[in-house]
Design goal:
single chain, Elongation Factor Tu (Ef-tu), domain 3, four-stranded antiparallel beta sheet, 38% strand
Length: 370
């Protein structure tokens, strides 16, 4: 029995010796090394901006509507057509207005004839009164006759004044009828572009009902709103950066041309009108964003070239204390030129791999490339 136990102990000892020998022969994993440019995250002062959003519009917009009731005979323009000031845009049925003009013309002619007759009667009464005054000086007429002639002369003069007033009224009526006839032709109030057509021939036009919209030609404006808390930052003539996403990624320099003096009571915001430079890429109705500087703040910035997109997620390769790259996901803020703000994910002073492109370098030791 003792012999068996001794043999077992010898076998266990031998196995432990073999196990220990095998552990000493295991070699550590080899870390791959590669060269890359390395940059560093830094904390810097960046502008504290106020953002204001709005819509690009023409400096002046006119909604063309009829001033008289009538059926539309012609609409001579369509959306996108350029028009000049005074150009006819639409024509209404003018038969009723022409009849009114002809009636007013007849009234003027009748009043003029009546005025001629009244003027003749007044002249005759005045000359008769003159002769009677001569006879009165010769005591050849009675006071009663003289009184009757005087009264007839006064009546003739008063009748002439009344008829002349009627003639003036008839002329005014004719002028009004001609003006109403002119309302049957709708014209462009200024040179510009037709941006909306809301009626076709055959439609009954009514006063105040929009038929066409014309935007003034020339430079455009961004009409944006800014919260009342930031109204002290902006002022008339201030230069601002405006980004129009649909017109390209570049921003343009705008100038605040007007600030509405009262805030909207519902949104507690003020309307700004920002003049934009002329550009063939800008169109009325586009969405834009303006930024106003409002002091500075501290932010962590990294080069935009160090950022890698994994689907919709932004990440960077951060070097640890041994120079090994580790993939780390970030929350990014606004770009600042060639840099971009990091809201969360790294701290200031960390080393990052620059321009990693599509290479998978996580877990690799990075040698700094000059």
């Amino acid at each position: 029995m003792k012999a068996v136990l001794s043999g077992g102990l010898l076998l266990v000892s031998a196995a432990m010796a073999v196990g220990c020998h095998g552990g000493e022969s295991t070699s550590p994993a080899v870390v791959q090394t590669m060269q890359a440019r390395v940059v560093e995250s830094r904390q810097q002062e960046v502008p504290l901006n106020v953002r204001s959003t709005g819509t690009v519009r023409a400096r002046e917009t006119a909604v063309v509507s009829a001033q008289v009731m009538g059926r539309i005979q012609q609409v001579l323009v369509r959306e996108g057509d350029s028009v000049r000031a005074g150009q006819t845009l639409a024509v209404l049925d003018d038969s009723t207005m022409r009849a009114s003009v002809e009636q007013a013309q007849a009234g003027v002619k009748a009043a003029q004839n009546a005025q001629i007759a009244a003027q003749t009667n007044a002249a005759l009464a005045t000359s008769t009164l003159g002769r009677y005054k001569q006879l009165e000086s010769q005591k050849s007429v009675s006071p009663q006759e003289m009184d009757e002639v005087s009264r007839r002369a006064e009546a003739a003069a008063a009748n002439f004044d009344a008829v002349r007033a009627q003639t003036d009224a008839a002329r005014a009526q004719e002028s009004g009828a001609r003006t109403m006839l002119g309302y049957t032709r709708l014209v462009a109030p200024f040179s510009g572009v037709v941006t909306s057509r809301m009626a076709d021939p055959g439609t009954m036009a009514a006063p105040g009902v929009p038929l066409l919209q014309v935007d003034q030609a020339g430079a455009l404006q961004l009409q944006a709103t800014v919260d009342e808390s930031a109204i002290g930052v902006v002022h008339k003539g201030m230069k601002v950066q405006v980004a129009i996403n649909s017109a390209g990624s570049t921003s343009v320099a705008g100038t605040i041309q007007e600030i509405m003096p009262a805030a909207d009571p519902a949104s507690h915001s003020f309307l700004l009108k920002i003049d934009l430079p002329r550009s063939s890429q800008l169109r009325a109705g586009m969405y834009g964003t303006a930024e106003f500087a409002n002091g500075v703040r501290q932010a962590i910035l990294i080069p935009r070239t160090a950022v890698v997109m994994r689907g919709s997620l932004a990440c960077v390769y951060v070097l640890d204390g041994k120079g090994i790259a580790q993939l780390r996901y970030l929350t990014l803020g606004a770009p600042q030129g060639d840099l971009i703000e990091v809201l969360s994910g790294i701290s200031s002073g960390e080393k990052l791999v620059d321009v990693p492109a599509d290479r998978d370098i996580a877990g690799k030791r990075i040698e700094v490339q000059p």
